[in-house]
Amino acid sequence: MKLVILLALCAVAAAAPKANRDAFAIEEFERFQATGNRNILINAIITTLFQRLRSIILEGWEEKGVPVLDPLVIESTHITIPAEIINLDLQLKNAQATGVGDFVVHKSILNVNEISFDVDISVPTLEISAEEYDLLGDFFAAIPLYGKGGAVFHIEGFRFSAKLFLKQSEDEKSILIERIENLTFVIPGFKSNLDGAVGGGDIDNIVNALVEEVIIDYVNRFRGAIAKVANGALVRILNSFLDGLNTWHYLAMLLPK
């Protein structure tokens, strides 16, 4: 019954004239919170934010100049992996990644006392395809490894968790991320399909099997260091999406008075 009431409030707010929507929403959410339904209110706001994020990923955000991110177009990228068995220097051109918009939220806990947000999110399947790759490397620093052609990579079960500390934007309208702590991730499955490595044919299968094994081992072994390097970049990327969303007033209603 409580959920029905909340949905009804949202429906009425959506039908109201645009100029009155925010004022109506704030007033009704405050009244709803006062009745002791705090958890329902928090869950509703979090669900709305994740729905908005998914919409931006799949459809873009023209007003902010954000393009569609699933598929994510990558004109070129350079990957270097120095491992004991195999050393890789891989360049991908005209690549795209798909599957980010299918993310699944396993946990989302908002702590209003310290203004933090614990999240646990997975992406069931990520596919990265490139029209052209250029590979240089070696086996055991002795046997040369090279190739050019098309490439497809499948990442299965990518999952990450983190604690996001939140802050108010300078214009006092948006929820931004101040810092990220306890960032960790896991990649349980990785499939490589490099076409044309060391002449192609049966050699492709051998090279792909080695690449899969080495990349999984390397990423999972050094994921702590990788997460530390990625931390700052994540804050900048996420804040570029969050800045401009009129969200702080919803969080403000939940903060201790």
From TrEMBL:
Secretion signal span: 1-15
Keywords, sorted A to Z: Signal
Gene3D superfamilies in the record: Haemolymph juvenile hormone binding protein
Name of the featured protein: Uncharacterized protein LOC114247948
